[in-house]
Amino acid sequence: MTTPLLTATIDLAAVAHNVGVLRESSGTDVMAVVKADGYGHGAEAVGRAALAAGATALGTAQLTEALDLRAAGVDAPLTAWLLTQTSDFAAGIAADVDLAVSSPRALAAVVDAARRTGRQATVTLKVDTGLGRNGIAADEWQATAIATAKAIADQSVRLRAVMCHLARGDEPDHPLNSEQAERLDRCVADLRRLSVAPEVVHIANSPAALTRRDLARDLVRPGIAVYGRTPVPDISDFGLIPAMTLTAQVVLVKRISAGDGVSYGHTWVADRDTTIAILPAGYADGVPRLLSNQLEVSVNGRRFRNVGRICMDQFVIDLGPDGGGVREGDTAVLFGTGAGGEPTALDWARMVGTIDYEIVSGIRGRRVRRYVGAGADHSGVADQRGSDADLRAGGTTG
Ligand SMILES: *Cc1c(COP(=O)(O)O)cnc(C)c1O
Predict the structure, then answer these.
(1) SS3 50
(2) Can you list the residues of the chain whose pLDDT is less than 70?
(3) Secondary structure percentages of the chain, helix, strand, coil, to 5
(4) Minimal CA–CA distance to 59: which of 155, 141, 165?
(5) What is the pLDDT at residue 389?
(6) Alpha-carbon separation of residue 246 from 93, 123, 318, 363 (angstroms)
(7) Residue 290: which region, alpha, beta or left (left: phi > 0; alpha: psi -120 to 50)?
(8) What angle, 0 to 180 degrees and rounded to 10, lies between the N-to-C axes of helices 138-153 and 175-193?
(9) Residue whose C-alpha is closest to residue 229's, from 92, 121, 335
(10) pLDDT at position 59, please?
(11) Is the dihedral of CA 285, 287, 292, 294 positive or negative?
């Protein structure tokens, strides 16, 4: 088997460990959020690993993401929450996806689909308690609650949950967190007055699951922490283990002379005779062009800096006059856990002024995913997106 030029190695044992951390910190059940193809890690593989580690459900944004998981054979409870009245609710009901509605119009469409198909829909009410994004608006709450009670009475709907999403979960002590929880509790009380009650209530994203046990209710809904990244790096890493390591094969090593410019625009010119190496990763694969002349990689335990512009497919590192002992075919670590001295996705995020959520979910293009750790060779884990590029390695980490 040839070594891929660019590899995202996903440690499923780390995912399992992180789910354990989240169960422990929240003291409750975990719905692992696997939207955006598992934050770039592979929704199906991560989802299966999280479930095997004790997560009780998976969450996605779009309904199609949940339907893809069902089609792949994932039979755990699934919730999707970015829906509109034109979503394919009949398909969602047929696949037994919990449909989290954000308006009375979406609810009406779900009820209509349930009546048409003769199957009861599982519904969550997603309430905007202060996020100011999707979720049922305050002035539509009463109508939605009453319509829900009617739909439950005629058995077209089963009310799985009432949920909300925090606006400032990453500021654990901010009063808005408790205010949002109180507003959600009032919504649940409204439903009780209508003689209906959800099976579960959930609020907490990763930062709340890690820092606000009092907001846990019946279920927490972490995403980023499942992938081993702390949402509040200034507070703690909570013992989470980053699951993704991005590596590239050195494709070319060559000598250049003092005065030679490197890459488009010659933004870097060698001030001495030196040796450079070409790495096959670029902005089309999710390496931000803004990292040009800042990015560092680790090869054989030594750090080397990117010189010249990061291109669509490749970038250049300066190995120094002695060549740093780097050879064609060597592996360069672009980011990893940091345990071996390599940069982390958080380092990248800080350099470009974003969060590591954006870095890891943006790794794409020609990278091949390779799964290691417990469950990596699970026979039910098929290659994703019809790609024959995803590889499975045996359980190599404990
Ligand atoms: C993305 C998302 C989450 C997970 O957020 P993290 O900060 O990654 O833990 C939870 N709930 C909803 C509604 C989301 O959209």
Answers:
(1) helix
(2) 1, 377-398
(3) 35, 25, 45
(4) 165
(5) 42
(6) 38, 38, 19, 9
(7) alpha
(8) 40
(9) 335
(10) 98
(11) negative
What is the structure's pLDDT at 376? 72
Which is catalytic among the residues 150, 227, 254, 264?
264
Distance 11 CA to ligand 1 centre (A): 21
Six token digits for residue 14: 């780390």
| pLDDT reported for residue 382 | 37
Please say if 39 is a catalytic residue: no
Task: Kindly state the helix (H) or strand (E) to which residue 252 belongs, with its residue range.
Answer: strand 252-256
For residue 175, with 0-12 CB atoms within 10 Å meaning exposed, 13-18 middle and 19 or more buried, which class applies? exposed
* Paired residues of 276 in beta bridges: 254, 318
- State the DSSP string of 131-149: --SSSB-HHHHHHHHHHHH
**Rounded-to-integer distance, Cα 340 and Cα 343, Å:** 9
pLDDT over 90 for what percent of the chain? 93
Is 150 a residue of the active site? Answer: no
Do 253 and 334 touch, CB atoms closer than 8 A? no
The confidence score (pLDDT) of residue 377 equals 61
Specify the ligand 1 atom closest to the Cα of 231. 7
Contact 280, 7 (CB under 8 A): no
* Separation between Cα atoms, residue 335 and residue 124, nearest integer Å: 38
Question: What is d(CA 50, CA 58) in angstroms, rounded to the nearest whole number?
Answer: 9
Question: Which pLDDT value is given to residue 381?
Answer: 41
Residue in the structure block whose two tokens are 């969450």: 59
Q: How far is the C-alpha of 116 from the C-alpha of 114, rounded, in Å?
A: 5
Instruction: Name the 3-class secondary structure at 112.
Output: helix
Distance of CA 169 from the midpoint of ligand 1 (Å)? 10
Best CA proximity match to 227, nearest among 60, 42, 6: 42
**Which domains are delineated in the chain?**
12-227 (3.20.20.10), 244-364 (2.40.37.10)
Length of the chain, in residues: 398
- In one letter, which amino acid is 134? N
